[in-house]
């Protein structure tokens, strides 16, 4: 036990809990400065055509290069940002940075592929969200088709009507919306067809054991069937093995994202991934 290891009166559990709380407090304290002082970094993960290996898009994923804690993953600080309201300035930074990158890639003469950014529910519900996104695109004269937004199912659950109204305006503006982590939330199938979305991203938890677990495979097949019926595009998340790619191809799921094709990397390293087919 803790005592026999010389751990004093705290158990290992208490210790790590305390550490976690302390880390959270530090993150809370430092986040504002991080947004203002350029400590955030945007990584990009490839979305790839499962038939050709061709790069068909990227997802922008934020990281925080904390001066003392090192690289902090989003799952640690996004919840902190959401609780404090800092998620709005944070995601505005993400949008601006992604747009700057789209412009930089265009200037390098690279094939134009869409960049997806994640939008939290709090940010989505801001009254000026559509204007704010559009003006960020206008600033750099970016084709609306080059930006996609990923929203989670849970973001859809509340204020259904308001969400539908906001998403419709994005759709009218030519900005595609993906439903992220699909299958993990509580999307009511009865209103799926009312949502003005373009794409479903099948959550990694179903893809993980798709080659070994009949249930996961059945769920994925069901999602694919529904997506076709609703004329939605599909992206499979969290592909790690060749066998998963082969099966998805058999199921006629042609866009995938995952460590098999590439982890999220800094923008400079994305060109490496675009040569997958060669
Ligand atoms: P997400 O949007 O579902 O992004 C995919 C996450 O799955 C990424 O984690 C990515 O690294 C990871 N992933 C991709 N392929 C694989 C794989 O093959 N295996 C495994 N084990 N993992 C894989 P990351 O970058 O740590 O981001 C985690 C989550 O943080 C994202 O999940 C997203 O919900 C959130 N996030 C990141 N950036 C933002 C942002 O700007 N705004 C908001 N609201 N959330 C963000
Ligand atoms: Mg996402
Ligand atoms: Mg996802
Ligand atoms: Mg996910």
Automatic annotation (TrEMBL):
Lineage: Bacteria, Bacillati, Bacillota, Bacilli, Bacillales
Residues of the full protein shown: 521 to 798 of 798
Protein name per Swiss-Prot or TrEMBL: EAL domain-containing protein
Signal sequence, renumbered to the chain: none
Location of the EAL domain: 24-278
Domain of life: Bacteria
